[in-house]
Write a structure and sequence with these properties.
0% strand; mainly alpha; 3 helices
Length: 63
């Protein structure tokens, strides 16, 4: 749900003129990272692939 929320909010940010579009793009990438993390966690459990997606999501949300 958090990933979907980030993607929807990113689309609003990218479509408005008040904020730079790069913020929307970064938010969308972070949302995708969280969606992939949920997918991997559901299919493989806590594995090394999940660790990579967690780190990618953290880096993108901090950016």
């Amino acid at each position: 749900m958090f990933g979907l929320t980030l993607i929807l909010l990113a689309s609003v940010v990218a479509l408005t003129a008040r904020l730079p579009r790069i913020f929307g793009y970064l938010m969308a990438l972070s949302g995708l990272g969280y969606i992939v993390q949920g997918w991997v966690l559901g299919s493989e459990g806590f594995s090394t692939t999940n660790t990579f997606t967690i780190l990618a999501g953290y880096v993108l949300i901090l950016a």
